[in-house]
Amino acid sequence: MVGLTLGDPAGIGPELVAQVVRRMGRKASLQILGSSRQFRPGVPTLAGAKQAREALEESVRLLKRRKIDAVVNGPVSKEWLARVGFRFPGQTEFYARRFGKKANQVTMCMAGPRLRVALVSTHLSLKRAAAGLKTSAIVRSGLHLAELLRRMGIRRPRIAVCGLNPHAGEGGLFGQEDKKIVAPAVRQLRKKSRLSFSGPEPADTVFRRAMVGEFDGVVALYHDQGLIPAKLLDFDRTVNVTMGLPVVRCSPDHGTAFGIAGKRKARVDSMLEAVKMASRLAGRSR
Q: What is the mean pLDDT of residues 123-136?
């Protein structure tokens, strides 16, 4: 049983969920959380944001009671959620807190047909992400990505770890972080997992190398370093998976798209892939 939160009812979430039900209703057990009644597409409101927040809380209650086996979240507006007292940078951090995890104990992973990426940090400014980079966080993200790839059926994944600086620091010429923080993390990952971890790799070429098959996944050190290539290559089919939780949580890799809500322009591909991924991961975790 997969729970589907509609997200912001004024966004494209409700129409995507409706399409998922039409296409998968006979192939999967789905439970919808939220309603789009009394809300106008493209017109966000405080009431809509409150409903989106309550749907998230309801999904937690159902997951803890084992009434649903996984949850897939429709897109929400961080701006509007903040207006109704939602104190989290995103849904990833919300589920971490609700299941007793710190934000630095879970990993946002993006899984698409051509590229799989794990993020060491998520919703931080670039300045804070670079200043706060730690070897332990890279190790955590690498192990979570390896776990996800194994659960996706790749028995011995090959994983690259990005460098932070241009050309992975060029031997210290462009900064010491790659030598002092990233390289030790790669050594620890090899020792802990006994898998093929490579790095620090220059970030300007590593994603292409992964796309053509040299690596099964890439650990990116900050938000845009990983999400720009993931969305460029697989925008319509990438799935956001939160690793490190005791439950399965996925979402499509796009926003509320208020500008096209209700106009039948939204593509359902990413939402469909998220439901398929959640069902698959929940089955394997059992």
A: 94
Instruction: State what percent of residues in the chain have pLDDT above 70.
Output: 99
What letter does residue 90 receive in the DSSP assignment? Answer: S
More confident residue, 113 or 173: 113
137-143 mean pLDDT: 98
pTM over 0.85: yes
